[in-house]
Amino acid sequence: MKKLSIVACAGIIMAMWVGCSEKTDEKDERIAALEQKISQMEQNQVVAPSNAQSVQAADPGTVGAFDFETTEFDFGTISEGEVVEHVFNFKNKGEAPLVISNVQASCGCTSPEWTKTPIKPGEEGLIKVVFNSTSKTGVQSPTVSVTANTSPNVTRLRLKGTVNQKTASAARPVEGPVKK
Prior knowledge:
By secondary structure, the protein is an alpha+beta fold.
C-alpha cells in the first residue's frame, strides 16, 4: 500500500512538472512574440493588423467643401411649446459641386430642410432646422447630421438652449362665470 501511494505521489509530481513546463514554454513563446513586435516598433517598421482597412485621401476635384458661417445656434431660453427656426447658411469652398444626399435630425422634435440641388463651387446653400419644444424641458441640444460628398462626409449642426416648463396655472383654461 505504501509503495502504491509513493508511486501515485511521484506520478502527480511528474504531471505537475510537465504541466508547468508546458506553461513556461507558452510564456516563452508569448514573450518572444512581444519582443519581436517591440523590435519592429523601435525600427519604425510597424506591421499593420491584417484586418485594417486602407484609406486613401479624397481627390479634391471630386468633393465639395462646406464653409458654414456657424455650425451651432444658441436659441437661449424659451417656454415649452415654442418653435425655434434657424437657417445655417454655407458656401461651397470645394472644387466640385457639393451634393447633400441626406440630412437627419437626432430626434423627432427637430425637422430639417435643405438645398436639394447641387451647389457649384463658390455658390451658397442653406439648411433650415426647426425645433419644436413641445414636451421638451430643460437643457436641449438637438443635432442634425448632414451627409454630403465632402471630406469627412458627415457634418453635424447643433441647436442648443433651455426650455422652461409650462406652469400649471398657464395650462389650465380660464373659467368664466358659473351658471346656476
